[in-house]
Amino acid sequence: MQNIYLARHGQTLFNVQHKIQGFCDSPLTTTGIQQAIAARDHLKELEIQFDDAYASTSERASDTLEILTDIPYKRLKELREWHFGSYEGEGEHLNPPLPYNDFFVQFGGESQQDLTKRIVSAISEIAKNSSGDNILIVSHGAAIANFYRHWEHTSNIKRVGKISNCSLGHL
Question: Which sequence ranges are marked TM in the entry (predicted)?
Answer without folding.
Answer: none
